[in-house]
C-alpha cells in the first residue's frame, strides 16, 4: 500500500464535525484525500476544515433536507472536480421507551440516520459510479441486538444495514457499498448520555461488557473505514463490519 493511499481522491463525510465523523475526516486527509465536511453544526465543520487546511471544505448541511444534500454534493464536486467516497456518519439520538416516545422523536432520528443516508447516496451515485467509488455508512451494534429505550435509534441503524445491502446489489460492479457497526465509542455525544451517572461510572459500566477492556475511540472506527474505502477491500460489498471490542459477536 502506498504511504499516502488516497492522494487525488475526494470524499464527503457527513457528521464530519465531531466524534466518529471527525476521526474519519482526519484519517482521510492524512492519507491524501480532500474532504467535504458536512455537519449541521457549522462551527464544528469549520473547525475540522481548519485542522486539515486546504484539503478540507466545510459545508453546513442538514442531511434530512433534500435540497441541502443536493447542494452538498454539488458543492463538493464543483470544488474537487470529482467524488470518490461518501461516508455517512451524521446522526442524532433521542432515547425513551416506546410507550413514552413521541412521534416527533421517532421521526427525527429516522430522518437523520436513515432518510439522510438515502438522500446522500442518491445524490452521490451519479458521481461515484464513473469514479468506481465507495460508500461507507455508520450503523451500530444496536441495529443487531436492539436497545431498550432506543426503538427509533435501533430501527434506523438496522435500516442502514438493509439499505447497504440493496445499494451494494444495485451499484455493483461499479461501487462498493459497506457499513460499520460500532460498539460504544468515546465521543462528545456518548459522554453527554450519562443518565445521572458520573463519566467514570458510565465508562466502568460499559467496559465490563467489552472483552478488549476499553471503550472504542474514533480512530478505531476510522481505521475500519479506511480499510473499506481502500484497495484491500475491493472484493467486499454489502457487508457490515463489526467494530466493538468483542462486546457483540455477530
| Class of secondary structure makeup | alpha/beta
Mass-distribution shape: globular
In this structure, how is the largest beta sheet organized?
A: 7 strands, parallel
User: What is the percent of helical residues?
Assistant: 40-55%
Largest sheet, spatial ordering of strands: 3-2-1-4-5-6-7
CATH homologous superfamily caption: NAD(P)-binding Rossmann-like Domain
Mean pLDDT: 96
- Quick one: CATH class? Alpha Beta
CATH architecture verdict: 3-Layer(aba) Sandwich
The count of strands amounts to 7
Q: Nutshell version of this structure?
A:
This protein is an alpha/beta fold and 250 residues long. The chain contains nine helices and seven strands, in the order βαβαβαβαβααβαααβ.
Characterize the structure shown.
This protein has 250 residues and is an alpha/beta fold. It has a single domain (10-186, 217-243), classed as 3-Layer(aba) Sandwich (Rossmann fold), CATH 3.40.50. The protein has nine helices and seven strands, in the order βαβαβαβαβααβαααβ. It starts with 9 loop residues before the first strand and ends in a 7-residue tail after the last strand.
Amino acid at each position: 500500500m502506498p504511504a499516502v493511499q488516497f492522494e487525488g481522491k475526494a470524499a464527503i463525510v457527513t457528521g464530519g464535525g465531531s466524534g466518529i465523523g471527525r476521526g474519519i475526516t482526519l484519517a482521510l486527509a492524512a492519507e491524501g484525500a480532500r474532504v467535504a465536511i458536512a455537519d449541521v453544526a457549522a462551527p464544528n465543520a469549520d473547525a475540522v476544515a481548519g485542522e486539515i487546511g486546504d484539503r478540507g471544505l466545510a459545508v453546513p448541511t442538514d442531511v434530512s433536507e433534500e435540497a441541502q444534500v443536493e447542494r452538498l454534493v454539488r458543492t463538493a464536486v464543483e470544488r474537487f472536480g470529482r467524488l470518490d467516497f461518501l461516508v455517512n456518519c451524521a446522526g442524532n439520538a433521542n432515547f425513551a421507551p416506546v410507550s413514552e416516545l413521541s412521534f416527533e422523536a421517532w421521526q427525527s432520528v429516522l430522518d437523520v440516520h436513515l432518510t439522510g443516508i438515502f438522500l446522500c447516496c442518491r445524490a452521490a451515485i451519479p458521481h461515484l459510479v464513473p469514479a468506481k467509488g465507495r460508500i461507507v455508512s455508520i450503523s451500530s451494534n444496536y441495529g443487531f441486538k436492539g436497545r431498550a429505550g432506543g426503538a427509533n435509534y435501533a430501527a434506523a441503524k438496522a435500516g442502514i444495514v438493509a439499505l447497504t445491502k440493496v445499494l451494494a446489489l444495485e451499484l455493483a460492479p461499479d461501487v462498493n457499498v459497506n457499513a460499520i457497526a460500532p460498539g460504544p465509542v468515546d465521543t462528545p455525544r456518548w459522554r453527554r448520555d450519562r443518565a445521572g451517572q458520573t463519566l467514570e461510572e458510565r465508562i466502568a459500566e460499559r467496559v465490563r461488557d467489552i472483552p478488549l477492556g476499553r471503550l472504542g475511540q474514533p480512530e478505531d472506527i476510522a481505521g475500519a473505514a479506511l480499510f473499506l474505502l481502500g484497495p484491500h477491500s475491493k472484493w467486499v460489498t454489502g457487508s457490515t463490519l463489526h467494530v466493538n471490542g468483542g462486546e457483540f459477536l455477530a
